[in-house]
Write the structure tokens for this entry.
Amino acid sequence: MDKFRRTDKDDVAFVGLTTMSDNVTHDASRSDGMNRVVFLLALSVFINYIDRSNLSIAAPLLQDELGLSNWQLGKLLSVFFWTYGCMQIPAGWLVDRFEVKWVFAAGFFVWSAATATTAILHGFAAWIVIRVILGIGESIAFPAYSKILGSDCFTESRRGFGNAAIMSGLALGPAVGMLVGGTVVGRFGWRPFFLVLGLGSLLWLIPWLAWMPSGTTSPAPASEHKVHILDIFRERSAWGTCLGQICINYGLYFLVAWLPSYLVRGRHLSMNQMGRVGGLIFFLAAVSAIVAGKLSDRWIAAGSSATQVRKASLGLGMTALGASLAAAAVAPDIAFIWALALAGVCLGINGAHCWAVTQTLAGPLVSGRWTGVQNFIGNFAGAFAPALTGHLLGRTGQFYWPFLVASIISWVGALSWVFAVGPIEPVDWERKTRRSHSVSRTTGVARP
């Protein structure tokens, strides 16, 4: 009977196995919960990019209805980005300071309500105001995404797919917007499209409030508030990511804002043809983002460094994007679609990696502020790309020069991500802020 007697050692082992089993079950449950959150984040950016690109979808009809010049249309397209960009630093502070679940819910409500309200507006001035409100609401999105994906819930080898899911939603927004929106606007007009889109989007808040756990991304403790905006700007890599983001955003928003008009007026496609071609380009961006994100996670899990994986992907993606945009400017009527398709693939590759770089560098407690800074500077491209394109079209009457400018900026971005950004590893904020504070006390210079 002795061989069946349990000893204290056996009890300890049994308890240890039970605890391990409970931890595995808890981790699996937590992972499943965060997978649902990633799905909601991807869905939110999908809605986000339909809402911000719906004006460009309706632009040919709206321009005729309001009698707008190309320069006026460019200003209308760009005012959103001015507001959106200027609100990035306050948005980053908010998601680092308060519970991201509620901050993001508030921003989502504001931008969805603004989209629905657009359907009842008349006149250029009213459109300017509502685009400003839309920019305020949507400004919370990317700092919140980085706060969540940069948290301890996501390791480096899972971060690629999380950001790829965000990018896929980003790309599918314009894709579905052009494919479905182009058809709906062509058949029913643009006002029903805006109204149904805005009101229907509010349903997203129901699963978000139910599935997003409170306290998953805790607000930064008081010690972390010592990291100021100037501390971020002291990092060489911060300047590299900001310049790289400018270059990514210029190409992206150039296509989001002006691709429908280019296809209709520059290539003489119908609204339905524009929807199919534009939808294909952004659909390819969504697929390539998922593939690139999964491959990068496997590459890192196999032992490669984040520096190798992220820089190689961004360097290749930005270089190929510039080449494809240059080719699209001069290609004949059939070949230009293939060039734009390659541009869509490159957009997906770039989007799957750029924010993963920031999340790793900033760490979980500063990711909201770094993302806010990076998106603030990066979205100057979103403000300038539509306006500059409208100006060049007004001067030349051709899309050749806008495409060439976007191509050159993409090549500058490749150099920035590869050479200006340093090693992609977490910044030791405690050491750096302690040193900067000691310097401030020694010199007597007050820090903001």
In short: Residues 36-443 form a domain with the Growth Hormone; Chain: A; fold (CATH 1.20.1250.20). The first helix runs from residue 8 to 66. The CA atoms of residues 88 and 375 lie 6 Å apart.
